[in-house]
Structures are given as structure tokens and as C-alpha cells.
Amino acid sequence: MHRHSRSGSPVVRPSLLPLAYFVLCISCQILFVSALALFIPDLAQSISFDILNAFSMLLGLWVAIRFGGAPAIRFSRPQKCLPVCILAFAGGLLLSYLDLQAKAVLGDPALTGNFATIRESIQAHEYLRASMLILPCCLFYPILEEGIFRGMLYEAFLRTGRSRFLSITLGSGLFALMHLTSRLEVLPALDIFLLGVVLSWLTLRSASLIPAVLLHAAFNAMAVVVQARLL
């Protein structure tokens, strides 16, 4: 898809960069999980889908970096590292709690999908199964999604000549699009979009992906604890 010049920079139409990165990452997810389920179904059934999905996202991110170059904003140590990271984690917990309270007021169902499975697994003392659902949600996905959306895609939009505001808006829109369920609900999509905007702002302010990863991880962790009714 990309060719490289002698200097190593990608030779590609700038307007295609965001779409190319997004398609690469999503395609790797779909192809990897589908191929494993088709050719090695026993292995696919024995491993959590979230583990497979996280691995395929890592593959997609690697492909995007391989062909498009590493983003300028990376997992580097931010300035005032400790207070920034503590505030990011605490902010993630607070935002998630407020989000869950708002969903409760709106009548959003609290125990669905993986959250129900996590609760059932813990009640049955199947801790390995529960951890294979919790780890991707609270660790793998925050790292990979921040690398893709606040790292690769944000910079790709900037390379097209778009402003920071528009780059954040478009990247957050794709972030929400990837999290849409089959029901295509508007409020959850808006919820994820606003989270993407906050994560993008935090990444720009800190010039590092680490605070955004911590906020994202805390946001998901609070959702797991509350929606799986672990407390």
C-alpha cells in the first residue's frame, strides 16, 4: 500500500493516510480472528475472543507503523510524570462513575455481554476465564487503542493538513465508530466520542500516550467493577 523513499519516509497520498491506517488495523482484526476460527476452531474456542481481538489489534498497529512510520507522540515519559499519571487515573475513575450514573438514570441495562460472563466466572471460581476477559478490557485495549487512535490516526489526520480540532474530532469519530454495537445506539456512541475527545486532549497536553492509557484503563476498570457487580 505504501512505498518508501530512500530516506525511509512513506510515499503515499497524504489524504489517504487516516483511511489507510484505520483500514489496516481493522482488517487485521477481522482477518486474524476469522482465520483462526476457520482453520483452528478448537484453539479459537479455548481462548477468549477479547485476547484474540487484542492480539489482532497489535498486529494491525504493527502493520500501520511498519508501512507508515512511528507516530511522533509515543509511550514516552510525560513531564511531571507522577502527578499527571495519578490525576489521569483518578480522572478516568471519576468519568466512568459519572458515565455509569448517567446510564443508570437513562435506564441503560447494567449487566450485559462480557460483564455478565465476568460475574458468572468469578462466582464459579473460574478466575482464569475471568482474567482473560478483564485483562484485555483494562490493559490491552487501552494500550492498543491509544496507540492507534491518539498515536497513528491523529498524526495521520494532521499530515493531511487538517487542524488539531478537526483531527481530534475525526479521530474520536472513528474511535466511536469502532465501538458501535449491532444496535447502532446513539447515546453510547456519543459517550465514546466524548471520551475520545478527552483522551486526545490529554495526549496533546502531556505529549505522551501514557496518561491517556491510564485514564482509559481506569475508565474501563470502573465499568467492569460496577457493571459486573463485583462490589
Domain module tally: 1
Number of discrete helical segments: 9
Please report which band the strand proportion falls in: under 5%, 5-15%, 15-25%, 25-35%, 35-45% or over 45%: under 5%
Please mark out the parts with pLDDT under 50 across 5 or more consecutive residues, or reply none.
1-12
Lateral arrangement of strands in the main beta sheet: 1-2
Largest sheet: 2 strands, antiparallel
* Succession of helices and strands: EEHHHHHHHHH
Shape: globular
Mean pLDDT comes to 76
What does this structure look like?
With 231 residues, the protein is mainly alpha-helical. The protein has one domain. It is built from 9 helices and 2 strands, in the order ββααααααααα. Strands 1-2 form a two-stranded antiparallel ribbon. The protein is globular, with a radius of gyration of 18 Å. The N terminus is likely disordered.
Brief sketch in words of this structure:
With 231 residues, the chain is an all-alpha fold. It contains nine helices and two strands.
